[in-house]
Amino acid sequence: MIRMKTIYLIGFMGSGKSTIGTYVEKTYNKSFVDTDSFIEKTYNKKIPVIFKEEGENQFRQYEIEALKTLKNYGVVATGGGIVERELNYQTMHENGIVIYLQTSFKHILKRLEHDASRPLWKQDIKERKALFDRRHELYVAFAKEVLSTDTKSIEEISREIIELAGEE
Ligand code: S3P
To answer: How far apart are CA 125 and CA 111, in angstroms?
Structure first.
């Protein structure tokens, strides 16, 4: 049986990777997994606890391993820092298509206004913006396709993802 390529969703925290992945799973009958949830289940710890007890570097190692393990899914929503390790580029490109969900800083700020669950979001606005700008460059470098999300509905974004993946 020919297996469709895996769709990897990359992008900043709050860009909607998990929401979109869940919608695509339901609507287009694709299997879906989220690397953050997978890591939390595997190590039986919430992400902020992993950061606190084991450090960011160890978390990045868990991400590398998770990505290598989760190769048979239709859609994989990745953590915002997946682009921090170059090895992940190879893992994703060998196995599928990488799509950057590009959301403006303004929208991210609004969406994560009350968020306390993301360790790297707990810094002042200047540092958040610097992270956002640095990451944007990395997402563009990692992605095969860039999909801007600001003015689109979940339905529209999901349809575009399916179209992009179908053209592969
Ligand atoms: C991170 C993003 C988070 C999570 C962790 C680190 C990052 O995932 O993996 O808090 O470095 O950008 P989301 O992008 O799903 O929020």
So the answer is: 14
CA distance 149 to 57: 30
Contact (CB, 8 A) for 156 and 85: no
- Can you read off the two tokens belonging to residue 19? 């929401």
The pLDDT tens digits for 127-149 are: 999 999 999 999 999 999 999 99
73-107 residues labelled b (16+ CB within 10 A) or e (exposed): bbbbbbbbbbbbeeebbebbeebbbbbbbbbeeeb
Q: Which two tokens stand for residue 49?
A: 């606890």
Please answer whether residues 85 and 62 qualify as being in contact, where contact means their C-beta atoms are separated by less than 8 angstroms: no
Ligand 1 atom closest to Cα of 56?
6
Say what the pLDDT of residue 4 is.
Answer: 77
Q: Is 43 exposed, middle or buried (0-12, 13-18, 19+ CB in 10 A)?
A: middle
Residues with CB under 6 A from ligand 1: 13, 17, 36, 47, 79-81, 118-120
**Residue 90: what residue type?**
Q
Separation of CA 45 from chain center:
19
Res 49 pLDDT > 90: yes
